[in-house]
Amino acid sequence: MQNSIKSPVTFSGVGLHTGAPVRMTVRPASADYGIWFKRTDLVSGDPMIPAIWDAVVPSRLCTLVANASGVSVSTIEHIMAALAGCGIHNALIEIDGPEVPILDGSAMPFVEGILSRGVRALAAPLRAFRILRTVEVRDGEAVARLEPAVTLEIDFRIDFADAAIGRQAKALNMANGAFVRELCDSRTFCRQSDVDAMRANGLALGGSLDNAVVVDGPLVLTPGGFRHADEAVRHKMLDALGDLALAGAPILGRYIGTRAGHALTNRLLRALFADPEAYRLIDVAPEQRAMLPGIGVHRAEIPAVA
């Protein structure tokens, strides 16, 4: 069966790049509705934007979706990861600005809000994309790949010159709440030099040490340091889940990312759906459903952070 949230939940904060205050409400939706954003601040034009792979437009440092009228919402990856990780397949997200609030830089506040309202089962079959053969895209040393697997697995590797991050690798079977337990509290991260460059170009105006882990060579500038020794690669896995959720249905396959980012993961989805022999849309059997992200998760599984 498909799922929706039981009742609305509202989040308020600022946009990471704009620094502007924003209010966002996740509302229940009916079966087969999918995930849609609605810009409530507009007085004209089409306010509805689908959260789907072919609505993604090129954007620096985040995932941005837009409709045919050019109306957009950016930095959607964390709320999309939270929805996928909590097993929510249908939702209307009302937002009064062009960017999702960054909150603490992770998906945990979204997960807490969603699970506080509860998950409602809908009387409709759940469908998923089964990966039938390997699809891969590259950009220099960066690689993103989908391979056949029984359920969704994410395997990610990063390599940064900054000693505070360095080389990190992690692999997870995303079944049975692994996202909530292992990934949802991991925050976005960046180098101080990147922050300086972004602000010089009018970006990251809402960024602070309260919503990102900032490093400078071997130093972690954010008070309290990392929540996990490998928080950086965990956050990249969080981002990957959010970007893969734009497929429009759960994926049964293994995602492997090496230095991959939002744009490359979207290119991977485009390559996948350009090859009808690489996937099949299936009805999810009960035994398969039990292995999907978010099935059976509870608020008690959310990590405690200082």
Q: Which key features would you list for this structure?
A:
five-stranded mixed beta sheet; Ribosomal Protein S5, domain 2; alpha+beta; 306 residues; lpxc deacetylase, domain 1
What secondary-structure arrangement, pairings included, does this model have?
Blueprint: E1 2-5, E2 9-14, E3 21-28, E4 35-39, E5 48-50, E6 56-57, E7 64-66, E8 72-74, H1 77-85, E9 91-95, H2 108-117, E10 119-122, E11 127-131, E12 135-139, E13 142-147, E14 153-159, E15 167-173, H3 178-183, E16 189-191, H4 192-200, E17 213-216, E18 219-220, H5 231-244, E19 251-252, E20 254-258, H6 262-273, E21 279-283, H7 286-289
Parallel strand pairs: 4-9, 11-19, 14-20, 16-17
Antiparallel strand pairs: 1-10, 2-3, 3-9, 4-5, 6-7, 7-8, 11-21, 12-13, 13-20, 14-15, 17-18
Helix pairs in contact: 1-2, 1-5, 5-6
Can you describe this structure?
The chain has 306 residues and is an alpha+beta fold. It has 2 domains: 2-122, 2-Layer Sandwich (Ribosomal Protein S5, domain 2); 127-301, 2-Layer Sandwich (lpxc deacetylase, domain 1), CATH 3.30.1700. Helices cover 21% and strands 31% of the residues. The protein has 7 helices and 21 strands. The strands form 6 sheets. Strands 2-3-9-4-5 form a 5-stranded mixed β-sheet, covered by helices on one side. Helix 1 (77-85) packs across helix 2, helix 1 (77-85) packs across helix 5 and helix 5 (231-244) packs parallel to helix 6. The chain is globular and about 50 Å long.
